[in-house]
Amino acid sequence: MAVPHQQQHQFPLPQILTHPSSSPALLITQGAEGRLYKTTHLFPDRPCALKYRPSKPYRHPILDARLTKARIAAEAKVLERCWREGVPVPAVYAMDAANGWLMMEWIEGVPVRQAINEYLGSGESQEGQEEAEELGDLMRRIGRVVGALHKTGVVHGDLTTSNMMLRRQEGEQKGVLGGEVVLIDFGLAMQSMSDEDRAVDLYVLERAFASTHPRAEKLFGMILEEYGKSFKKATSVLTKLEDVRMRGRKRSMLG
Protein backbone atom coordinates (compact mmCIF):
# COMPACT_ATOMS: atom_id res chain seq x y z
CA MET A 1 0.00 0.00 0.00
CA ALA A 2 1.39 3.39 -1.02
CA VAL A 3 2.20 5.81 1.76
CA PRO A 4 0.74 9.31 1.19
CA HIS A 5 3.30 11.96 0.32
CA GLN A 6 2.72 13.99 3.45
CA GLN A 7 3.42 10.96 5.64
CA GLN A 8 6.67 10.12 3.86
CA HIS A 9 8.39 13.50 3.90
CA GLN A 10 9.18 16.23 6.33
CA PHE A 11 10.14 18.54 3.43
CA PRO A 12 7.90 20.13 0.79
CA LEU A 13 7.97 18.01 -2.36
CA PRO A 14 8.99 19.43 -5.75
CA GLN A 15 5.94 20.36 -7.79
CA ILE A 16 6.34 17.47 -10.22
CA LEU A 17 5.82 15.00 -7.34
CA THR A 18 2.66 16.68 -6.07
CA HIS A 19 0.60 16.16 -9.22
CA PRO A 20 -2.43 13.89 -8.61
CA SER A 21 -1.21 11.43 -11.25
CA SER A 22 2.34 11.19 -9.89
CA SER A 23 3.58 8.03 -8.21
CA PRO A 24 4.48 7.95 -4.51
CA ALA A 25 7.99 9.24 -3.91
CA LEU A 26 10.44 7.90 -1.37
CA LEU A 27 13.14 10.21 0.01
CA ILE A 28 16.43 8.31 -0.32
CA THR A 29 19.02 10.87 0.75
CA GLN A 30 19.03 14.44 2.04
CA GLY A 31 22.20 16.43 1.44
CA ALA A 32 23.30 20.02 1.84
CA GLU A 33 22.61 20.84 -1.80
CA GLY A 34 19.70 18.60 -2.66
CA ARG A 35 17.44 15.62 -2.10
CA LEU A 36 17.18 12.33 -3.97
CA TYR A 37 13.81 10.65 -4.37
CA LYS A 38 12.87 7.28 -5.81
CA THR A 39 9.70 7.42 -7.89
CA THR A 40 8.61 6.21 -11.34
CA HIS A 41 8.80 7.52 -14.90
CA LEU A 42 5.99 7.08 -17.44
CA PHE A 43 5.03 3.63 -16.16
CA PRO A 44 4.47 2.36 -12.59
CA ASP A 45 7.04 -0.40 -13.13
CA ARG A 46 9.78 1.92 -14.41
CA PRO A 47 11.63 3.28 -11.36
CA CYS A 48 13.61 6.47 -11.61
CA ALA A 49 15.68 8.77 -9.43
CA LEU A 50 14.62 12.38 -9.09
CA LYS A 51 17.25 14.82 -7.86
CA TYR A 52 15.81 18.03 -6.48
CA ARG A 53 17.67 21.19 -5.50
CA PRO A 54 15.32 23.22 -3.28
CA SER A 55 15.64 26.98 -3.04
CA LYS A 56 18.05 28.29 -0.42
CA PRO A 57 16.42 30.98 1.76
CA TYR A 58 19.80 32.40 2.79
CA ARG A 59 20.63 33.32 -0.83
CA HIS A 60 19.24 36.21 -2.83
CA PRO A 61 16.27 34.80 -4.80
CA ILE A 62 17.59 35.85 -8.21
CA LEU A 63 21.09 34.47 -7.51
CA ASP A 64 19.62 31.30 -6.04
CA ALA A 65 17.45 30.70 -9.11
CA ARG A 66 20.39 31.23 -11.46
CA LEU A 67 22.70 28.92 -9.50
CA THR A 68 20.10 26.17 -9.24
CA LYS A 69 19.28 26.32 -12.93
CA ALA A 70 22.96 26.34 -13.93
CA ARG A 71 23.88 23.40 -11.70
CA ILE A 72 20.99 21.18 -12.78
CA ALA A 73 21.68 21.96 -16.45
CA ALA A 74 25.41 21.31 -16.03
CA GLU A 75 24.82 17.95 -14.35
CA ALA A 76 22.40 16.87 -17.08
CA LYS A 77 24.83 17.94 -19.80
CA VAL A 78 27.69 15.96 -18.24
CA LEU A 79 25.52 12.84 -17.84
CA GLU A 80 24.30 13.05 -21.43
CA ARG A 81 27.84 13.42 -22.70
CA CYS A 82 29.00 10.38 -20.73
CA TRP A 83 25.97 8.37 -21.88
CA ARG A 84 26.68 9.15 -25.54
CA GLU A 85 30.29 8.04 -25.12
CA GLY A 86 29.31 4.74 -23.51
CA VAL A 87 30.39 5.53 -19.94
CA PRO A 88 28.13 3.61 -17.52
CA VAL A 89 26.10 6.39 -15.88
CA PRO A 90 22.36 6.88 -15.25
CA ALA A 91 20.40 7.91 -18.34
CA VAL A 92 18.69 11.30 -18.17
CA TYR A 93 14.89 10.98 -18.56
CA ALA A 94 13.69 14.54 -18.02
CA MET A 95 14.77 17.87 -16.57
CA ASP A 96 13.34 21.16 -15.40
CA ALA A 97 16.35 23.28 -14.54
CA ALA A 98 14.24 26.33 -13.70
CA ASN A 99 12.39 24.35 -11.02
CA GLY A 100 15.52 22.59 -9.84
CA TRP A 101 14.95 18.92 -10.67
CA LEU A 102 16.57 16.22 -12.78
CA MET A 103 14.97 12.83 -13.44
CA MET A 104 17.32 9.93 -14.12
CA GLU A 105 17.45 6.19 -14.53
CA TRP A 106 17.27 4.32 -11.24
CA ILE A 107 20.37 2.12 -10.87
CA GLU A 108 19.37 -1.10 -9.16
CA GLY A 109 22.22 -2.55 -7.13
CA VAL A 110 24.49 -1.77 -4.20
CA PRO A 111 27.17 0.90 -3.72
CA VAL A 112 30.70 -0.36 -4.31
CA ARG A 113 31.59 0.82 -0.81
CA GLN A 114 28.94 -1.44 0.69
CA ALA A 115 29.87 -4.39 -1.53
CA ILE A 116 33.57 -4.26 -0.58
CA ASN A 117 32.80 -3.95 3.12
CA GLU A 118 30.27 -6.80 2.96
CA TYR A 119 32.77 -8.96 1.09
CA LEU A 120 35.58 -8.32 3.54
CA GLY A 121 33.30 -8.92 6.50
CA SER A 122 31.49 -11.97 5.18
CA GLY A 123 32.24 -15.61 4.66
CA GLU A 124 32.79 -14.96 0.95
CA SER A 125 36.08 -13.25 1.74
CA GLN A 126 39.05 -15.57 1.51
CA GLU A 127 42.42 -14.64 2.94
CA GLY A 128 45.30 -14.66 0.50
CA GLN A 129 45.32 -15.23 -3.24
CA GLU A 130 41.59 -15.83 -3.78
CA GLU A 131 40.60 -12.62 -1.98
CA ALA A 132 43.21 -10.65 -3.92
CA GLU A 133 41.92 -12.02 -7.23
CA GLU A 134 38.26 -11.20 -6.55
CA LEU A 135 39.02 -7.73 -5.24
CA GLY A 136 41.54 -7.22 -8.02
CA ASP A 137 38.88 -7.95 -10.64
CA LEU A 138 36.69 -5.21 -9.12
CA MET A 139 39.66 -2.80 -8.99
CA ARG A 140 40.26 -3.34 -12.71
CA ARG A 141 36.61 -2.70 -13.52
CA ILE A 142 36.77 0.55 -11.54
CA GLY A 143 39.96 1.56 -13.35
CA ARG A 144 38.37 0.99 -16.75
CA VAL A 145 35.29 3.03 -15.87
CA VAL A 146 37.32 5.97 -14.53
CA GLY A 147 39.50 5.82 -17.63
CA ALA A 148 36.41 5.91 -19.85
CA LEU A 149 35.07 8.87 -17.87
CA HIS A 150 38.26 10.90 -18.23
CA LYS A 151 38.51 9.98 -21.91
CA THR A 152 35.21 11.82 -22.50
CA GLY A 153 36.65 15.01 -21.00
CA VAL A 154 34.67 14.77 -17.77
CA VAL A 155 35.94 14.71 -14.17
CA HIS A 156 33.62 13.51 -11.45
CA GLY A 157 34.58 15.82 -8.61
CA ASP A 158 33.60 13.40 -5.83
CA LEU A 159 35.02 10.08 -6.95
CA THR A 160 34.46 7.69 -4.05
CA THR A 161 33.18 4.14 -3.77
CA SER A 162 29.94 5.56 -2.35
CA ASN A 163 29.33 7.16 -5.76
CA MET A 164 29.77 3.90 -7.66
CA MET A 165 27.10 1.23 -7.96
CA LEU A 166 27.34 -2.44 -8.84
CA ARG A 167 24.51 -3.13 -11.27
CA ARG A 168 23.68 -6.77 -11.91
CA GLN A 169 21.71 -8.02 -14.88
CA GLU A 170 18.59 -10.05 -14.13
CA GLY A 171 19.55 -13.57 -13.10
CA GLU A 172 23.26 -12.71 -12.90
CA GLN A 173 25.03 -14.42 -10.00
CA LYS A 174 28.61 -13.30 -9.43
CA GLY A 175 28.88 -12.97 -5.68
CA VAL A 176 29.02 -9.82 -3.62
CA LEU A 177 31.51 -8.08 -5.92
CA GLY A 178 29.83 -8.96 -9.21
CA GLY A 179 28.13 -6.59 -11.61
CA GLU A 180 28.80 -3.59 -13.82
CA VAL A 181 30.37 -0.55 -12.16
CA VAL A 182 28.13 2.48 -12.73
CA LEU A 183 29.14 6.00 -11.72
CA ILE A 184 26.49 8.13 -9.99
CA ASP A 185 26.04 11.57 -8.35
CA PHE A 186 27.54 14.05 -10.81
CA GLY A 187 26.58 17.13 -8.81
CA LEU A 188 30.22 18.27 -8.60
CA ALA A 189 31.28 17.04 -12.05
CA MET A 190 32.62 19.29 -14.77
CA GLN A 191 33.95 19.06 -18.28
CA SER A 192 37.72 19.31 -18.22
CA MET A 193 40.70 18.12 -20.26
CA SER A 194 43.15 19.14 -17.52
CA ASP A 195 45.62 16.53 -16.26
CA GLU A 196 45.52 18.31 -12.92
CA ASP A 197 41.75 17.91 -12.59
CA ARG A 198 41.94 14.27 -13.60
CA ALA A 199 44.75 13.64 -11.12
CA VAL A 200 42.73 15.23 -8.31
CA ASP A 201 39.85 12.89 -9.22
CA LEU A 202 42.18 9.91 -8.78
CA TYR A 203 43.62 11.33 -5.56
CA VAL A 204 40.15 11.73 -4.04
CA LEU A 205 39.42 8.09 -4.87
CA GLU A 206 42.76 6.98 -3.46
CA ARG A 207 42.14 8.81 -0.18
CA ALA A 208 38.65 7.33 0.00
CA PHE A 209 40.13 3.85 -0.28
CA ALA A 210 42.67 4.58 2.43
CA SER A 211 40.01 5.71 4.89
CA THR A 212 37.11 3.44 3.94
CA HIS A 213 38.73 0.22 2.75
CA PRO A 214 42.12 -0.14 4.50
CA ARG A 215 42.27 -3.88 3.78
CA ALA A 216 41.79 -3.22 0.08
CA GLU A 217 44.08 -0.17 -0.06
CA LYS A 218 47.07 -2.25 -1.13
CA LEU A 219 45.16 -3.21 -4.30
CA PHE A 220 44.50 0.40 -5.35
CA GLY A 221 47.46 0.19 -7.71
CA MET A 222 45.37 -2.15 -9.86
CA ILE A 223 42.90 0.68 -10.46
CA LEU A 224 45.71 2.93 -11.67
CA GLU A 225 47.19 0.14 -13.78
CA GLU A 226 43.90 -0.52 -15.57
CA TYR A 227 43.30 3.23 -15.85
CA GLY A 228 46.62 3.46 -17.66
CA LYS A 229 45.61 0.72 -20.11
CA SER A 230 42.17 2.17 -20.88
CA PHE A 231 43.12 5.84 -21.28
CA LYS A 232 45.81 6.89 -23.75
CA LYS A 233 46.66 10.12 -21.92
CA ALA A 234 46.97 8.39 -18.55
CA THR A 235 50.77 8.67 -18.36
CA SER A 236 50.74 12.44 -17.93
CA VAL A 237 47.80 12.21 -15.51
CA LEU A 238 49.60 9.67 -13.33
CA THR A 239 52.69 11.87 -13.34
CA LYS A 240 50.56 14.77 -12.17
CA LEU A 241 49.04 12.49 -9.51
CA GLU A 242 52.46 12.30 -7.86
CA ASP A 243 52.48 16.10 -7.58
CA VAL A 244 48.99 16.09 -6.10
CA ARG A 245 50.02 13.43 -3.57
CA MET A 246 53.04 15.51 -2.58
CA ARG A 247 50.89 18.58 -1.98
CA GLY A 248 48.47 16.47 0.03
CA ARG A 249 51.27 15.14 2.25
CA LYS A 250 52.57 18.68 2.83
CA ARG A 251 49.13 19.87 3.88
CA SER A 252 48.86 16.93 6.27
CA MET A 253 52.21 17.75 7.83
CA LEU A 254 51.31 21.41 8.25
CA GLY A 255 47.85 20.58 9.63
Q: What do these coordinates show?
A:
With 255 residues, this protein is an alpha+beta fold. It is built from seven helices and ten strands. The strands form three sheets. Strands 1-2-3-5-4 form a five-stranded antiparallel sheet. Strands 6-8-9 form a three-stranded antiparallel sheet. Strands 7-10 form a two-stranded antiparallel sheet. Helix 4 packs across helix 6 and helix 5 (195-212) crosses helix 7. The longest helix has 24 residues, at 61-84.
Provide a compact summary of the structure.
The protein has 255 residues and is α+β, with helices and mostly antiparallel strands.
Features:
single chain; 255 residues; alpha+beta; Phosphorylase Kinase, domain 1; Transferase(Phosphotransferase), domain 1; 2 domains; 3-stranded antiparallel β-sheet; 7 helices; 44% helix; 18% strand; tRNA processing; EKC/KEOPS complex subunit BUD32; EC 2.7.11.1
Please describe the topology of this protein:
Blueprint: H1 5-8, E1 26-30, E2 35-41, E3 43-52, H2 61-84, E4 92-96, E5 101-105, E6 109-111, H3 112-121, H4 129-151, E7 154-155, E8 164-167, E9 180-183, E10 190-191, H5 195-212, H6 220-230, H7 234-254
Antiparallel strand pairs: 1-2, 2-3, 3-5, 4-5, 6-8, 7-10, 8-9
